[in-house]
Write a structure and sequence with these properties.
The protein contains seven helices and no strands. It is mainly α. It starts with a helix and ends in a 12-residue tail after the last helix.
């Protein structure tokens, strides 16, 4: 299995595409996924830092495959993955012929971002709490008499 993972960063596109076809997680038992995923992620991260842009973009495709079959892998490696996405976008090293592959990589990013927990309830509730406090301030009237005593 390790030799197959080494093909993730192979210089030959046909080899990478063929090895991609072999990675089917459906037959992998739940108990064996953890060690297999961590080994595979090491090779994916290696490919994400490869000098060849084509290899780097294919690494994102492999990662997307991992996330599709094992969604918790994104949360385990989120920081490193997002750094690699940022790096590939900042360096702008892709050419017009790689746009389709870039779109695939970005589609993987979108699917990863949808896995992130959304705490809109917390945001909404804190907004509502603030609003309630402001209403209390506007409703507050002092217990002092309204007529001013003159001496």
């Amino acid at each position: 299995m390790e030799e197959l993972c080494e093909r993730i960063s192979d210089n030959d596109r046909v080899v990478r595409d063929t090895s991609y076809q072999f990675f089917l997680f459906l037959g992998c038992k739940e108990d064996n996924r953890g060690p297999f995923i961590s080994m595979m992620m090491a090779y994916i991260f290696n490919a994400m830092t490869h000098l060849a842009v084509d290899v780097r973009l294919m690494a994102f495709t492999f990662f997307n495959l991992v996330v599709q079959h094992y969604p918790p892998s994104f949360s385990l490696y989120a920081e490193k993955i997002l750094q690699n996405y940022e790096d590939i976008l900042q360096k702008n090293q892709f050419y017009l012929k790689d746009n389709g592959k870039l779109k695939n990589a970005l589609a993987g990013l979108v699917s990863c971002l949808t896995l992130l927990p959304c705490n809109t309830r917390k945001v909404v509730s804190s907004f509502e709490e603030n609003l309630a406090r402001k209403r209390v301030l506007h409703v507050f009237e002092p217990d002092l008499p309204k007529d001013v005593a003159r001496f």
